[in-house]
Design a protein that fits this description.
Blueprint: H1 2-13, E1 23-27, H2 31-43, E2 50-54, H3 56-64, E3 71-74, H4 78-85, E4 93-104, H5 115-120, E5 126-129, H6 135-150, H7 154-161, E6 163-166, H8 180-186, E7 192-196, H9 197-206, E8 211-214, E9 222-229, H10 236-244, H11 247-255
Parallel strand pairs: 1-2, 1-3, 5-6, 5-7
Antiparallel strand pairs: 3-9, 4-7, 4-8, 4-9
Helix pairs in contact: 3-4, 6-7, 8-9
């Protein structure tokens, strides 16, 4: 650390500027864990990354539209692959995995055993994120398709009544400082919300009375997270991408509830 401080002072005295950290565009579900990882990376001597979080599909559109980014970390493999196909990066690397869970309002009796029946109740407000804009919504649709395999027509009924409450360009934003998913359920916009298990746990930190319910085995859907370096070899983006796959970073990801390849 002292060596780094001396280097900083020398740079300032010589009139030079410190190298900027990587500009990282990352899925909103990574915000909490990437914020911790950015701090750890800086503690280890790296240039602190600058983060832009949001729905992966909307971030991908911004990058394709010319927004400057050194690294893109998506909640699926499809969006970073689209950037590779467009010539903006070389390869997509899977670096984490998540799963879907249900975030349930207090007092509603939802278990893994009755989850499908409860989501089908007409008096239960079912919420999802916005498909195509946010992979979480796409994974929810995949879960509904699994329900169709159990009984044809169930998935279509779920898709028809599921409200797209988050992740879209026109989605309502929570009050400053509030967790998006905790706010959606706590404010009564949804009784049951389908999202990543890691999001459910963050929401319950804010509102402990909310419930986390695992999906039954037949409906479980995994989410593969992919990253692509957009700034080339030797760049800050490449350096941070390597760090994300290091043992210390993997440990932080696992502690946050993600599994890592």
């Amino acid at each position: 650390m002292r060596i780094r401080m001396v280097a900083m002072c020398a740079c300032l005295l010589s009139g030079g500027a410190m190298a900027d950290g990587a500009q990282v565009y990352a899925a909103g579900s990574l915000k909490a864990v990437f914020s911790r990882l950015g701090g750890l990376y800086a503690e280890q001597g790296g240039a602190a990354p600058r983060f832009e979080f949001g729905p992966s599909g909307l971030l991908r559109e911004r990058i394709q539209g010319g927004a400057p980014a050194d690294l893109f970390a998506s909640a699926n493999m499809k969006h970073p692959q689209a950037l590779v196909d467009a010539g903006k990066g070389a390869t997509v690397t899977q670096f984490a995995r998540n799963e879907l869970c249900l975030l349930v309002r207090p007092g509603l009796d939802v278990t893994s055993g009755n989850a499908l029946a409860q989501m089908l109740r007409r008096d239960v407000k079912l919420g999802v994120s916005t498909p195509k804009a946010d992979p979480s919504g796409d994974y929810a649709v995949a879960m509904f398709r699994r329900a169709d395999a159990l009984r044809p027509g169930i998935g279509e009924a779920l898709r028809a009544r599921a409200m797209q409450l988050t992740g879209g360009p026109a989605s309502a934003r929570p009050p400053q400082g509030r967790n998006n998913y905790a706010w959606v359920v706590d404010s009564g916009q949804a009784d049951v919300f389908v999202t990543y298990c890691t999001n459910v746990r963050l929401a319950r930190r804010e509102v402990p009375t909310l419930q986390e319910v695992a999906l039954p085995e037949a409906l479980r859907v995994g989410a593969d997270y992919g990253l692509v370096v957009l700034s080339g070899a030797g760049s800050e983006g490449e350096a941070f991408a390597r760090f994300l796959q290091s043992p210390p970073a993997r440990k932080v990801m696992q502690d946050a509830g993600f599994s890592t390849p």
